[in-house]
Write a structure and sequence with these properties.
Blueprint lengths: L6 H12 L14 H15 L11 H13 L26 H16 L9 E2 L3 E2 L2 H18 L3
Length: about 150
């Protein structure tokens, strides 16, 4: 099971991220490559508690959907609408300088995967409270999903 907890998995995502350029075309969705970089960075900010989001998970989302999304070995499908706080056309971080935004995303990944991280028990807006291991699995899957969006 791939996770940001594994150095090899983390490095694979970083290598794929560096193949995405500001002019990379999406295979699906409306986000530009630059918006995607900022969206993934905002999602990691959410994970570490720096970007507040509204939470209203149902019992089904906190249990069955969370388990399916994190532990069933299927790729996440395209077409999910993101939260307004993580949408670059609404409340998310606006793209600025592509190289600087990529570097910021790398720094956020370093923080999320650092031994001093404090993810255990943090609330995901859909999946509810998650363990450290669940957050690192989610981080891998979320980033993988968006890199596949740009064929990276």
């Amino acid at each position: 099971m791939r996770t940001l907890q594994n150095t090899r998995d983390r490095n694979e995502l970083l290598e794929r991220m560096l193949r995405v350029g500001p002019n990379s075309e999406p295979r699906w969705g409306k986000m530009s490559a630059h918006q995607m970089i900022c969206h993934v960075a905002d999602a990691f900010r959410m994970a570490i508690g720096e970007r507040p989001v509204l939470c209203a998970p149902s019992l089904v989302e906190r249990t069955a959907i969370k388990w399916l999304a994190l532990y069933v070995p299927l790729r996440w499908p395209a077409g999910f609408t993101t939260l307004p706080e993580l949408d670059q056309e609404q409340g998310g971080t606006r793209p600025d300088d592509f190289a600087a935004d990529v570097a910021q995303l790398e720094r956020l990944i370093d923080r999320v995967t650092a031994p001093t991280r404090a993810l255990d028990g943090r609330i995901h807006p859909v999946f509810g409270a998650m363990s450290d291991a669940a957050w690192l699995r989610w981080g891998y899957l979320h980033m993988d999903h968006h890199l596949r969006q740009f064929d990276a």
